[in-house]
Specification:
Length: 338
Amino acid sequence: MGPHPAVAAIRLAVRRVLHDVITEHRTDPAATPDKHPLVLVACSGGADSMALASALAFEARKLAVRAGGITVDHGLQDGSDQRATEVAGRMAALGLDPVEAVAVTVGREGGPEAAARDARYAALDEAAERHGATAVLLGHTRDDQAETVLLGLARGSGIRSLSGMAAVSGAAGRYRRPFLELDRQTVRKACVAQELAVWDDPHNADPAYTRSRLRHEGLPALEKALGKGVVEALARTAQLSRDDADALDSWAADAETAVRDEAGRLECAKLYGLPPAVRRRILRRAMIAEGAPAGSLFARHIEEVDRLITGWRGQGAINLPGRVEARRQGGRLVIRQG
């Protein structure tokens, strides 16, 4: 008799990603042909990441892949160091190697959720570099994708925010999300079927956190009002939005050279002639290039700078995150550190 349907589903999702990693490794001229690529799983000990760790360990034994795991101790709860040690032990018991628990210090910039996420990804990046990992697997599900889309909608951050999480992201496609087409319930069933010990983070049920309120109050209310299928519809919205956003990003990248003068300065008249969606992407790219943190740039920032082009009335400089300022001078848009 074959595995439980939920177990089969998560293994298939991971197998597809590992085949992609192997193919990329074989065609990479910088790769070592006699050494299998290393794939790490980022594991918190929760159901999503434990199911992912189990599937990775199972599939890697059959493929030309080395498999390891990283758990990050954010230090935000009593006993978090002991819990991280336990999670590392569970991954090792699954056969993953190398396995490591990494402690981080969480700052305050951007709020607690954003600060924890930034610290976590920095630790995962560092671990991947240190171990020479080709990819890091993340356990985000279709439900997580739906929540991300709704959060982006609430912020009014534009179509890129509605794109949610990409299946492949990060430098050189480091981060892979095999479960984006699987719902949270399927992943939990896989854990039960395999008798995997999981840890439910109390922060996930704490109404002090925006995502927690959305998960336990917002999405259920939407499903009650609109019927089942909201999560699936939001996930489809993410993919459609991503396709559109990718096309507009490509257009903006091609158009940027044409709207700069010989000195590389942005010309307001040429920017004015572009479609708003393309123009605002060029502006955002220019702000980030001068040091504005991408995660702190919101729609209102872009709109204020855009008015220097479309609604020019002699207004002064616009202050942006990262101590960057934008001002109009002699028909040019000047964006630089203030």
